[in-house]
Design a protein that fits this description.
mainly alpha; two-stranded antiparallel sheet; binds zinc ion; RING-type domain-containing protein
Length: about 325
């Protein structure tokens, strides 16, 4: 473990004077882990150093029941959390700042190392003398430009994510024809329209040929007799015509049944309508007859009344 004396340490905030005695008088190192305190004089020691002493206090020489030792966890907590600069700050320019309890780890593992300035770099610390090379040649997060389309991003993004989809990235013909060297990815579709090794539909595909000859063999294929294919397609068509005939016959008789049914319904409705019409007329005549005979009766009565009055009148004069 690296040696650490009080004079090596530079605290961000000066320690209070009463707590400034932080060196073990036995090993002369700063006590960071497991400090113990002597009951006689209050002096702190490393646990491992004082464990070897049994008789008297190595600091004030007290002995017997005056001299007892106990662990001082509060002191450990307080001291361990103080912020210090790296002890090599002056010598090497190390910029590490951290809690005192971490300085030994820093000195043994990270001191003299620096962080890579590229955001997202997975390297935590790099030896200072290796940084330049790392930044320029090795860092996966270093700025990088796609040499095909000019897109700028990190090295790792361009290589792993962008290259597989860059439209200008040079690729081979998917059918590996030799008519072209590598072509930009975005030109592949156009190339396939002329590529001699790409499969094409037979021009008799509508007549039933499902072959996909290579473009360079397609002329030859079209010259081959397609008789078998044609015979098969024709018999399939005939079969379908028969089926459709049967079907339309069935549909026709179904329609005829519906027409008959509708005719019957129509006749029924006509008969209904006629009888309702007759009924209505009969009632109207009956009503008029009735009213007429009532009027005649009334008229007769009026006339006889009038005649009677006339007779009385004549009698009076
Ligand atoms: Zn010690
Ligand atoms: Zn003592
Ligand atoms: Zn350092
Ligand atoms: Zn880096
Ligand atoms: Zn690109
Ligand atoms: Zn090709
Ligand atoms: Zn064909």
């Amino acid at each position: 473990m690296s040696q650490l004396s009080r004079n090596d340490l530079i605290f961000q905030k000066e320690l209070p004077e009463s707590l400034d005695n932080i060196e073990c008088p036995i090993c002369l190192q700063v006590i960071i882990e497991e400090p113990c305190q002597a009951s006689c004089c209050g002096q702190h020691f490393c646990e491992t150093c004082i464990a070897r002493v049994t008789t008297s206090c190595p600091y004030c020489r007290a002995s017997g029941h005056n001299f007892a030792v106990f662990k001082d966890r509060n002191f450990a907590r307080f001291l361990g959390s103080q912020i210090v600069y790296c002890t090599n700050k002056e010598r090497t320019g190390c910029e590490w700042v951290g809690e005192l309890r971490q300085i030994r780890t820093h000195l043994s593992e990270n001191c003299g190392r620096v962080r890579c300035p590229h955001p997202g770099c997975p390297e935590e610390y790099i030896q200072a003398y290796k940084l330049k090379r790392h930044q320029e040649k090795e860092c996966p997060a270093r700025p990088y430009k796609c040499k095909h389309c000019g897109l700028k991003d990190t090295y790792i993004y361009i290589r792993q994510t962008h290259y597989p989809e860059c439209p200008l990235f040079p690729v081979e013909c998917p059918y590996k024809c030799t008519t072209v060297a590598k072509i930009p990815r975005c030109d592949v579709q156009d190339h396939l329209l002329v590529c001699p090794l790409s499969p094409v539909e037979c021009k008799y595909s509508a007549l039933g040929c499902l072959m996909m000859p290579l473009r360079m063999n397609s002329e030859e294929h079209h010259l081959e007799p397609h008789t078998e294919v044609l015979v098969e397609t024709c018999s399939r068509l005939l079969c379908r015509i028969e089926q459709e005939k049967e079907q339309s016959k069935a549909e026709q008789s179904n329609l005829q049944r519906q027409i008959n049914y509708l005719n019957t319904e129509l006749n029924k409705m006509r008969a209904d309508l006629r009888s309702q019409h007759d009924l209505l007329h009969g009632k109207v005549y009956y009503d008029i007859d009735d009213k007429l005979s009532q009027l005649i009766v009334k008229h007769e009565k009026l006339r006889s009344d009038h005649d009677q009055e006339f007779i009385i009148y004549i009698a009076m004069i």
